[in-house]
Design brief:
By secondary structure, this protein is α+β, with helices and mostly antiparallel strands. The protein is about 25% helix and about 30% strand.
Length: about 140
């Protein structure tokens, strides 16, 4: 009699978890040091970066995200220095609202050799004449 009751309780817990969680199987985002997040995609936090927030999400694939602000005038130099063999930063294939982006996610433009990420995307939004908001993602596929 106790075994069927335990099975029912377990099923209720599973149903409630699936109904109330964005990540019922685990793998929700966790805060990590920004150096770890950027390193996964072959980058370093630029000088002058502030308001940093970085996370990792891992289950079947691994996905690091970093968001920070930096001086607007330094964005292109940081991207070019970080990914010298990558494409020039531009406006094609940017996320909605982004003013500038860089995508390393194809055979032609891959992340640097030796990094764990299979793809890297950087989207930049200009918040004013002096500030840029950078959203960096590095992930496996």
């Amino acid at each position: 009699m106790a075994l069927p009751a335990l099975v029912v309780v377990w099923l209720v817990v599973v149903v409630v978890r699936f109904a109330t969680s964005d990540y019922p199987l685990g793998g929700g985002p966790e805060k990590v040091p920004c150096a770890e997040a950027l390193h996964f995609g072959g980058a370093k936090l630029p000088k002058g970066a502030y308001d940093t927030e970085c996370t990792v999400q891992a289950w079947q694939d691994t996905s690091y995200h970093a968001a920070f602000r930096m001086p607007r005038t330094a964005v292109r130099d940081w991207l070019t220095h970080t990914y010298p063999k990558g494409p020039a930063p531009g406006t094609e294939l940017c996320d909605e609202g982004a003013d500038l982006c860089l995508n390393l996610n194809s055979q032609e433009h891959e992340p640097p050799a030796g990094v764990d990420a299979n793809a890297v995307t950087v989207n930049v939004t200009y918040e004013g004449p002096d500030t840029a908001r950078v959203r960096f993602s590095a992930f496996t596929v």
